[in-house]
Write a structure and sequence with these properties.
Helix content: 40-55%
Structural class: alpha/beta
Strand content: 15-25%
Radius of gyration: 21 Å
Order of helices and strands: HHHHEHEHHEHHEHEEHHHHHEEHEEEHEE
Bound molecules: uracil
CATH superfamily of the largest domain: Nucleoside phosphorylase/phosphoribosyltransferase catalytic domain
Number of helices: 17
Distance between the termini: 38 Å
Largest sheet: 4 strands, mixed
CATH class of the largest domain: Alpha Beta
Strand order of the largest sheet: 1-4-5-13
CATH topology of the largest domain: Pyrimidine Nucleoside Phosphorylase, Chain A, domain 2
């Protein structure tokens, strides 16, 4: 077989069969198909798409380019969760200990943030000492002993995705549905959990900008999971505005702690409880929302979270300290009314400029930087009232402040935001 023939086949709108897909992915992971041919292939997929059968073949072939974790030494049904990415998304920090507080083991591998989206690993590394690299043995032992662990994605997992994702990132081929589906699902299957909850974000700050696209992606991934013997469900969740109040690594850890102390905003608290109910349901535990809320606001999730931080070398004193920045700028409402929009993409990019994110993979991070909202979509504001605070150690450009004010949209009509749009199972 030759890569050029497979690229041409896809370019002409034809489907690759299982052998062809397996050959292409295997040769790419082995360094025998060069990046320039793989990027041509990814661009051909962008224009011509892939059938469900091709996406399945690609997922299986990717899976075979790395090791699969065996979680069988952990008793009970293991459940995992994955988000397709967003702004202010601190869900894992709260949901994992909450689900673990019901005795359900959670062994989770997370990723880093890139561009306007944040990553759980960066948030955890904002806690002094927290180790994201555990050996497989230590990872499994910790889950057996305390019921949870969140670590970085292991290097030996799905090698083809590691190479391909980096390539897609610099060739404008990230936002392609079958490539996103095979990338996520190959990693989820390799990570070894029995059941999977997928949080497919929708809106301005997400890969999927509208509900129809998000639903299609969710359906493909649910089908892939099922086909590989892992019960999978997906929720479509709103990412038109940032999630919760904080964007930025330490700021999001602090918001997660406030939710786990029962001091978080109701909408975020309720949202996490609904996701926890779905995860618990997946492992056959029927728990009422009231009971889940009690675990969350009553400190049981926090106890698990602290145990995980300690077990992974984190410093509990540092965990609770406030952020340290040189500058805090307030953004005030230009007029009275309801907040109608806080565009997630814009605020994610602003947080990145303040130091909270990376434009390219090699950029350093300022864990302290970010944005905290005092008002969200649907809230009433008076003229001059503070809507958000910008935290940074950089010199603030005056242009950022005027732009930021313009992006706080205020109108006469109250909009009711909806965190969970739909469940796909
Ligand atoms: N997250 C992934 O892991 N892969 C993608 O392709 C997109 C989001």
């Amino acid at each position: 077989m030759r890569a050029v023939d497979l690229i041409q086949k896809k370019r002409d709108g034809k489907s690759l069969n299982t052998e062809e897909m397996a050959w292409l992915i295997e040769q790419y992971a082995a360094g025998l198909v060069p990046d320039y041919q793989m990027s041509a292939f990814a661009m051909a997929v962008y224009f011509k798409g892939m059938s469900v059968a091709e996406t399945m073949a690609m997922t299986l072939s990717m899976l075979k380019t790395g090791k699969e974790y065996d979680l069988s030494s952990i008793s009970g049904i293991k459940v995992d969760k994955h988000s397709t990415g967003g702004v202010g998304d601190k869900v894992t920090l709260i949901l994992v200990p909450l689900v673990a507080s019901f005795g359900v083991p959670v062994a989770k591998m997370s990723g880093r943030g890139l561009g306007h989206t944040g990553g759980t690993l960066d948030k955890l590394e904002a806690i002094r000492g927290y180790q994201i690299n555990l050996t497989e043995q230590d990872f499994l032992r910790q889950v057996r002993e305390i019921g949870l662990s969140v670590i970085g994605q292991s290097d030996d997992l799905v090698k083809a995705d590691k190479l391909l994702y980096a390539l897609r990132d610099v060739t404008a081929t990230v936002d392609i549905m079958p490539l996103i589906a095979s990338s996520i699902m190959s990693k989820k299957i390799a990570a070894g959990a029995d059941k999977i909850l997928l949080d497919v974000t929708v809106g301005d700050g997400a890969f999927m900008k509208n509900e129809d696209e998000a639903q299609e992606l969710a359906k493909i991934m649910v089908a892939l999971g099922r086909e590989m013997g892992r019960e999978t469900i997906a929720v479509l969740t709103d990412m038109s505005q940032p999630l919760g109040l904080a964007i930025g690594n330490r700021l999001e850890v602090l918001e997660a702690l406030s939710v786990m102390k029962g001091e978080g905003r109701d909408d975020l608290t309720d949202f996490i409880c609904q996701l926890a109910q779905l995860m618990l349901d997946l492992v056959g535990k029927k728990v009422s929302l009231a009971e889940i809320r009690e675990h969350l606001v009553g400190g049981q999730a926090l106890e698990k979270f602290e145990a995980m931080v300690l077990a992974q070398g984190g410093d509990l004193e540092d965990l609770y300290r406030p952020v340290r920045v040189e500058t805090i700028e307030e953004i005030r409402a230009e007029k009275e009314g309801y907040i109608t929009q806080l565009p997630a993409l814009y605020f994610g990019q602003l947080a990145m400029k303040l130091g909270a994110g990376r434009e390219v993979k090699t950029d350093g991070l300022d864990y302290e930087a970010g944005i905290v909202f005092e008002k969200k979509v649907g809230d009433w504001v008076r003229k001059g009232q503070v809507v958000a605070k910008l935290y940074t150690n950089k010199k603030i450009d005056e242009k950022w402040l005027t732009e930021c004010q313009k992006n706080v949209k205020i109108g006469d009509e109250k909009i009711e935001p909806k965190e969970i749009i739909k469940v796909i199972s």
